[in-house]
Amino acid sequence: MSEISGWKVALALAAFMMINFIDKIVLGLVAVPMMDELRLTPQEFGFIGGSFFWLFAVGGVAGGFLANRFETKWLALCMILIWSICQLPIAYSTSIATIIACRLLLGISEGPAWPVAVHALYKWFPDNKRNLPIAILAQGSGVGLILAGFLIPAITARWGWRANFVVLAAAGLAWAVLWAFLAEEGKLEHDQSTRPAVATAPYSRLLLDRSVLGCIVTHFVGYWSLALGLTWLPAYFQRGLGFGGIESGRIYALVIGLTIPLGIALAWWSQILLKNGMSSKAARGRYLSCFLIVAGILFAAVYVGGQARDWIKIAILAFAIGLTPIIYSLGPAILAEVVPPPQRGAMLAINNSIASMAGIAAPVVTGALIQGIPGATGYEIGFALCGGLMVIGGMLGFRLIDPARSVKSIRPIVSGAVS
Questions:
Q1: Neighbouring C-alpha atoms within 13 Å toward the C-beta of 200
Q2: Which label site among 111, 193, 221, 414 has the fewest CB atoms less than 10 Å from its CB?
Q3: Which domains are present in the chain?
Q4: d(C-alpha 84, C-alpha 75), whole Å
Q5: What is the pTM of this model?
Q6: Angle at 350 between CA 349 and CA 355, to 5 degrees
Q7: Distance between CA 351 and CA 34 in Å, rounded?
Q8: Separation between Cα atoms, residue 197 and residue 295, nearest integer Å
Q9: Dihedral-angle region of residue 375 (phi above 0 means left; psi in -120 to 50 means alpha; beta otherwise)
Q10: Among 81, 55, 76, 56, which Cα is nearest to 66's?
């Protein structure tokens, strides 16, 4: 019965992440009409896009520590209510300052979403069954991006770009009503947090652990690709490759559509490797690092093969983007192995918040490249930069992540620590 309830919560939280990612991508999908109406340069639009992440890390860390003390079901409810409220001023304001303020507030309230959702699911599933539910959670994000790719351009064409923010506010409120009636808190670790074996360790020690550092590095470069795609990929299809607005949205949806079966399959394969006796170092750490390196090479290939046909570039980007989400399902699982459960919510949030710093830099850096280099080339150099960072991050992750070694180094400290 508890596992059935756990899957209900997993599906509800997948919908939560779906709304979360529609909130993130909406600005990218209305980039062209918004820039035209408000007379924004690419660099100015990149600045607005990056504003979402200015306080994202602060909100993420704060939410993580709150998740250690309060039930995740109430945290999720409060977050989505704030998201809905933030959308409405954007729908009606002509002030750039107001739009930035709303995106900033949206960012700080969405900062804890992923770590809180992961923490909530870990209360329902043991370590050897966590890869798949977290992959399902991550694919909620992909479903949101697919829906956004089809719906947002259609809404824009019918009612204008501002109408999307009214729809998002209504969707958030609808989820909040359902969650208030359906939410349950997992009890898997209810009695474990008081045992001496899982007493707390110093956060400074945890943050300097090799596996934690490896997770932070790989998550950072993965987040760079996420922020790049959310802000500039639809505009690349439209202004770089010359597709129309609705057509660009559909291409974006198809690209993201690949990430769902691929992401679930890769997470499932990792879980099978663990069940067959492979170490977590190999089945999680080196596994995700290798896919990150391959994704980075593919991103760079879009620029290197600059004369290739458009459909080839789109296919390469689709596979690069499809390989990256493995970081979001396996990285938290590695942290859960290493970090004592009473501190897990905070450490998941700290990891996510540090990684989100890439969300501030990627839109602005890429916007400067797009503004300075005409046509598709500026976008493609931005993809190549992203790819280089991912290759470096994957190599560092391959070298650093070793959960068994980390547990051995932390346990002596944990056993003597005071909660």
A1: 12
A2: 193
A3: 2-184+202-413 (1.20.1250.20)
A4: 15
A5: 0.75
A6: 100
A7: 33
A8: 39
A9: left
A10: 76
Judged by phi (left if over 0) then psi (alpha if -120 to 50, else beta), residue 176 lies in alpha
Closest CA to 13 of 111, 107, 121, 87: 121
Tokens in use for 284? Answer: 């999680």
What whole-number distance in Å separates Cα of residue 145 and Cα of residue 125?
A: 26
Residues in the chain: 419
Distances (CA, A) of 223 to 5, 303, 349: 31, 20, 14
**CB-facing half-sphere around the CA of 272: CA atoms within 13 A:** 6
pLDDT of residue 191: 38
Lowest-confidence region among 67-71, 98-102, 313-317: 67-71
Q: Which residues contact 373 (CB under 8 A, 6 or more apart)?
A: 381
The pLDDT tens digits for 1-56 are 466 777 888 899 999 999 998 998 898 889 889 988 988 888 888 888 888 888 88
Joined together, the tokens standing for residue 15 give 């919908």
CA distance 25 to 149: 9
Digit-coded pLDDT (tens) for 195-210: 344 567 888 889 999 9
Residue 67 is encoded by which pair of tokens? 């998740």
CA–CA gap between residue 333 and residue 128 (Å, rounded):
9
Rounded Cα–Cα distance for residues 249 and 239 (Å) = 12
CA 383 vs CA 23, 117, 160, 227, 379: distances in Å: 23, 30, 30, 11, 6
CA distance 353 to 358: 10
Which amino acid would we find at residue 225?
A: S
Cα separations (Å) of 152 from 127, 226, 250?
38, 19, 10
Please give, one letter per residue, the 3-state secondary structure of 148-176.
HHHHHHHHHHHHCCCHHHHHHHHHHHHHH
* CA distance from start to end of the chain: 32
Q: For the range 141-144, what are the long-range contacts, defined as Cβ-Cβ under 8 Å and sequence gap of 24 or more? A: 141/17, 141/18, 141/20, 141/21, 141/325, 141/328, 142/21, 142/256, 142/257, 142/259, 142/260, 142/263, 142/325, 143/14, 143/18, 143/260, 144/17, 144/18, 144/19, 144/20, 144/21, 144/22, 144/25
DSSP 239: I
- Please answer whether residues 193 and 14 qualify as being in contact, where contact means their C-beta atoms are separated by less than 8 angstroms: no
Looking at residue 283, what DSSP letter applies?
I
Cβ–Cβ < 8 Å for 196, 362 = no
**What single DSSP character describes residue 324?**
T
DSSP state for residue 125 in the 8-state scheme: S
Check pLDDT > 90 for residue 166: yes
